[in-house]
Amino acid sequence: MKKIIILVVAIALFATTIPVKAGGVYEGPEPGKSLIGIRAGLELGFIDVNAVYDYSLAYVWKGAFTIGGYAGIGFGVFPGFNGLYSPIMARTTYRFNVVVPNWEVYAGAMLGVGLYFDGGVRAGFAGGLLVGTSYYFTDKFGINLEFDGGYGTPYASFGVKFKL
Questions:
Q1: How far is it between the farthest Cα atoms of the chain?
Q2: Would you say 105 and 96 are in contact if contact means Cβ atoms under 8 Å apart?
Q3: How many domains does the chain fold into?
Q4: pTM, 2 dp
Q5: Domain residue limits at 51
Q6: Got the DSSP string for 94-143?
Q7: Phi and psi at residue 92, in whole multiples of 5°?
Q8: In angstroms, rounded to a whole number, what is the distance separating the alpha carbons of residues 84 and 119?
């Protein structure tokens, strides 16, 4: 039984090995490329649906620098969190070089306004720091996971990403 488990693990490791391109580094999106993400996330008392747009400005040092925007809507799902919350923010990210093709890791910041609708409309600060990762199955389509720390941003978001 032990030999069978070792054989299965070895086959799985060899089957999932991803070849590294010549030079060994994925540099991030080319300058001039756009990235669009559509995700669902969790926020304190809210389920959040959001869209992200990033535009690659330039390769800087060992990665790509992007600017863009974030818009979301959060639906109150827990007692005491009724109404809707909608953050609208500008964002910037730095996408680090990684050795695995089609995989990117990034960090950045967002800053904007959050609108809270609960019979009236209230506005306040929204923003914070973020770290995320994306894996592209094709040249145009991938999945995305992002963690945000701040105010008015989902703590974790998962969804799809498109390169244009």
A1: 66
A2: yes
A3: 1
A4: 0.78
A5: 2-163
A6: EEE-BSSTTEEEEEEEEEEEEEEESSSEEEEEEEEEEEEEEEESSSSEEE
A7: -140, 145
A8: 10
Backbone phi and psi for residue 150, each to the nearest 5 degrees, phi listed first: 170, -155
Per DSSP, the residues of 137-163 read SSSSEEEEEEEEEEESS-SEEEEEEEE
- Mean pLDDT, each 10-residue run in order, the chain (164 residues): 53 42 63 93 84 93 92 83 87 90 92 89 92 93 93 88 91
Alpha carbons within 13 angstroms on the beta-carbon side of residue 97 total 12
| Nearest one of 146, 45, 150, 28 to 89, comparing CA atoms | 150
Token pair, residue 61, equals: 């040092």
- Residues 54 and 158: beta-carbon distance below 8 Å: no
- The CATH number linked to 62 is 2.40.160.20
